[in-house]
Design goal:
Length: 237
């Protein structure tokens, strides 16, 4: 492990890589030989995806939810498993095993992905740099504040996820040193809830940012749908 650390490979990096491989393996196995009536792993994966899909579509709206559900759902599932990897016994002490979200580099990387995803989606949905008109609303003199808000978002996402997970692990470690029996188990039970909340908050904020960027595209889709509804009436006339 010391040899790996010398070239910049850390325990969170190893854990995150293993988690990525694990998720890919689960998806490949669940998607192989799919049947109309799902059973086993396929059934579990489909239930999870359906529940998340309904939740994010309700939050983001029909257009943005259906179109960008994969990215926000991936954020949620990936961060959730990363958070829970810190609950494995001796996580953070065994070489190559540490919750990726306990290192600031991991949340920062995810936050940067969200930032650029929002910019790309905004430009694509608004057919160009007209997306940045929102920086001048409601008043042009608000531009510096609105621009600052764009860059504060990834910082906020990073510090919120990292601070909560790192603080949680520090508290558990401190309790383990003071009361090695009983109390750490209670704290880890609370960590299960905390890990779920933090992954959900990150995905929720990402979903809100993306839905705001795709707002113009949603308006165009609604207008097109309304026009299609009027076609039969026109033809009948």
């Amino acid at each position: 492990m010391e040899a790996l650390n010398s070239i910049g490979i850390t325990s969170p990096m190893i854990t995150s890589t293993v988690i990525t491989i694990f998720i890919c393996a689960v998806v490949i196995i669940a998607g192989r030989n799919m049947t109309m009536i799902p059973t086993g792993l396929q059934n579990v994966v489909e239930v999870v995806v359906e529940k998340l899909h309904a939740f994010f579509v309700d939050l983001m709206g029909e257009y943005a939810g259906r179109k960008y559900f994969p990215i926000v759902a991936t954020f949620f599932i990936y961060i959730l498993i990363c958070n829970y990897s810190g609950l494995i016994p001796l996580a953070g002490h065994l070489p190559g095993l540490a919750a990726p979200t306990s290192s600031i580099n991991f949340p920062l990387g995810l936050a940067i992905v969200v930032f650029f995803a929002v910019q790309i989606i905004g430009i694509r949905e608004n057919h160009g740099i007209s997306y940045y008109k929102h920086l001048f609303k409601p008043f042009a003199f608000m531009f510096p504040i609105m621009l600052l808000e764009e860059f504060v978002r990834p910082v906020s996402l990073t510090l919120r996820l990292y601070g909560n997970i790192f603080g949680e692990e520090s508290v558990i470690s401190a309790f383990f040193g003071l009361v090695p029996l009983g109390m750490p188990i209670i704290m880890q039970a609370l960590s299960v809830l905390m890990g779920l909340i933090q992954s959900l908050v990150f995905a929720l904020l990402a979903a809100i940012y993306i839905s705001e960027a795709a707002e113009h595209g949603a308006e165009l889709a609604a207008e097109a749908e309304e026009g299609m509804k009027q076609l039969p009436t026109t033809n009948n006339l």
